Amino acid sequence: MGNDEGGTRDPERAWSFELWHLLRPFYALPPVGYTPSILPELGAIMRCPACNAETVAEAVYCHRCGQRLATTATGFAIDRPPEDEPAPAASITNATGELRTPNVSGPKTEPERELWRGGYSSKAMAGGWAISGTISLLAAIAGVWIRPRGYWWLAVLAAMLLPWLYHFIVLCYRWMGVRYLLTTQRFTCESGVLRRVTDRIEVLDMDDITFEQHLLERLTGVGTIHILSHDRSNPDLSLRGIENVKQVANLLDDARLAERRRRGLHIEQI
Predict the structure, then answer these.
(1) More confident residue, 226 or 52
(2) Do 254 and 144 fall into the same domain?
C-alpha cells in the first residue's frame, strides 16, 4: 500500500483501500478519499482498450490480446493516433502571437509572363529594295540609250516597276504571315495568311540559340535566329527578319536558362 506525501502511513485510508480492493467487482468508482495519482502505486487495475480485459497499471501489453497499452502518469489508458498516421504539421507563432500552420504544399507556381512579341521586320527587305533599285536604274539607262519606239516603252516601264511590286508583295506576305511570342515558359510561332499554323515550343526544351547576319542585315540591325530543340514537329526553327536580333537571341537564351534553374534541372543532364 502507498504512503502519504509526508512519508507517514495513514491506517484509516489504507484500510479503506483494502476494503475497496475486495469489493471492486461490485463498484465502478474508487473509494472516497483516494485520488488517481496514488492508484498506480497501490496496484490499481485498468482495462485494455481493445478487449476490455483487466490489467495492472504497470503493464505495457495486454495479457489477453497483446494490445500495447498507452498509459498516463495515473495509470489509465489514453487514446493515441496510430503509428502509421502522419503527424500534424507543427504550428508556428507569428509576430502577433497567432498560431499558424506552415504551408507544406510546396512553392506556388510562378505565373506566365510575356517577355517579347514581334514579327518580320521591313528592314530585312533592304537587300530586296537594293535589287529593285538597281534593276530600275539599269532599265532607265537602257531606255534612254536604246530609245525604243511604240510599245517598247511599256516594256522598259514594266522592268522598272515590277521588281518593286514583287518585293512589296513579299514584304506584305512575310509581315502578315508570321507572329512570334515569347513568355517565361514557352515560345509560340504563328505562320500563314489563309491557313494559320501555330507551333509551341517549351523554353525548357530549347537546346541551342544562334543567330546570323549578312552585310546589309548588320547595317540595319536585323537577322535570322535558329532555335534547336526537342520539339518533334519543328526541331530546327528559323526566325527570319528579326529586328534587334542580338538582344532577342539573348532574351531567348536567358529565358531558357531561367526556366531550367526554376525547375531545378542540370543542363548537362538534359
Answers:
(1) 226
(2) yes
| C-alpha to C-alpha distance for 20 and 31, rounded to whole angstroms | 6
Task: State the Cα–Cα distance between residues 265 and 258, nearest whole angstrom.
Answer: 10
Range of the domain at 38: 8-80
CB neighbour class for 93 (10 Å; exposed up to 12, middle 13-18, buried from 19): exposed
User: String of b and e for 149-183 (b: at least 16 CB within 10 Å)?
Assistant: eeeeeeebeebbeebbeebeeebeebbebbbbbbb
Number of domains in the chain: 2
- 66 shares its domain with 174: no
Residue type, 114: E
Same domain for 120 and 167?
A: yes
Is this prediction's pTM over 0.70?
Answer: no
Confidence of residue 65 (pLDDT cuts 50, 70, 90): confident
Categorize the per-residue pLDDT at 164 as very low, low, confident or very high, splitting at 50, 70 and 90: very high
